[in-house]
Amino acid sequence: MKRIIILGCTGSIGTTTLQAIRSKSLPFRVVGLSSNTRSRELLSLAHEFQAEALCTTGSSLTAVEGVKTYTGFSGLHEMLQSLEADIVLNAIAGFEGLKASLSALMCGFDLALANKESIVCAGSYLFEVAKQHGASIIPVDSEHAAIWELLKGRDPGSIASLILTASGGPFRTLPNKDFAAITVEKALAHPTWNMGKKITIDSATLANKALEVIEASYLFNVETDKIEVVIHPESIVHSMVRTTDGAVYAQLGSPDMTLPIINALGNGHSSLVTPLDFSNLSLHFYKPDLARFPLLGLAFAVLQRGGSSALAFNAADEVAVQAFLGGTISYPKLIEVVQKTLEHPWDQTVGSFEEILALDKQARNIARSYL
């Protein structure tokens, strides 16, 4: 029985994980759980899964008899130190998830990582911390999880490129002239995935794919020119690997996060998702339009630029998306805020969490000045 800790257990990834454990009787013992503010839901889940410890990072938590309780990110670190586990799933959304990733790695836990911001913002520093503490980072994002599986047993020298697929979001065919009329409600209407608000908006702008391009570069140690993006509206092909002999290998499956999550926690489980029926299956692929979705193109420029530009990209995007969701800026303005923030010099290479925090704060302040 594998002992696991789930951070961000009340969000989309956490909920999917617990549902899979519940419905498929998977051999996992949930020993620790965290949420941001949903303390009542957290307590209910703790009772159901008989967790040993709980933490809320954004609110107080009532004491529970027989269960260790913690609050705040300092409390989260204490919780991780107090538990014996085989792996930590970090499903905390946004930049805040980086704190949890570092805590898990510093405690020596292998990390199933659904928080792409950890890699985007910390870059090679995150992997250095993992190496120092003998821990592994395993991707949970469906695209990177697919590549992770496709690369197993392959000679790195045989890989020509990695191909990330993108659904294209709700505005894939919308004329550019109509972008100014995009509302929050329209941007949240994703055609294939049911996700949180922030990632759904990022999928509409293709900023999420931009973050995944940056993530792939660090995860798989590949140069910018070895990463491709293709628009695939059906979201059946999760990613592909192009080899030097000219062949392309792909992972196919229904748009269901159960498979990448559970495989990251431990391989060998059967019947995780419904097998594809090819009798009525049509797949389409298109080249991304970087003129209409410039944030995706900006990701490749960020990788070539280096320094702390990826961190600044994420910070500006989080500020702009929050403003868009709040109704204070338009969809085109969201794009503009990120672009203008990246026009500033971001040459410093991060070497500590304190440096990351300082640069993130600086980038957010600059982004807010353009709202």
Automatic annotation (TrEMBL):
Mn(2+) binds at residues 141, 143, 212. Pathway: Isoprenoid biosynthesis; isopentenyl diphosphate biosynthesis via DXP pathway; isopentenyl diphosphate from 1-deoxy-D-xylulose 5-phosphate: step 1/6. Keywords: Isomerase, Isoprene biosynthesis, Magnesium, Manganese, Metal-binding, NADP, Oxidoreductase. Residues 4-123 form the 1-deoxy-D-xylulose 5-phosphate reductoisomerase N-terminal domain. It holds the Pfam family DXPR_C. 1-deoxy-D-xylulose 5-phosphate binds at residues 116, 142-143, 167, 190, 203, 208-209, 212. It catalyses: 2-C-methyl-D-erythritol 4-phosphate + NADP(+) = 1-deoxy-D-xylulose 5-phosphate + NADPH + H(+). Residues 252-365 form the DXP reductoisomerase C-terminal domain. Its cofactor is Mg(2+); Mn(2+). InterPro entries: DXP_reductoisomerase (IPR003821), DXP_reductoisomerase_C (IPR013644), DXP_reductoisomerase_N (IPR013512), DXPR_C (IPR026877), DXPR_C_sf (IPR036169), NAD(P)-bd_dom_sf (IPR036291). PANTHER family: 1-DEOXY-D-XYLULOSE 5-PHOSPHATE REDUCTOISOMERASE (PTHR30525), 1-DEOXY-D-XYLULOSE 5-PHOSPHATE REDUCTOISOMERASE, CHLOROPLASTIC (PTHR30525:SF0). Catalyzes the NADPH-dependent rearrangement and reduction of 1-deoxy-D-xylulose-5-phosphate (DXP) to 2-C-methyl-D-erythritol 4-phosphate (MEP). Belongs to the DXR family. This is 1-deoxy-D-xylulose 5-phosphate reductoisomerase.
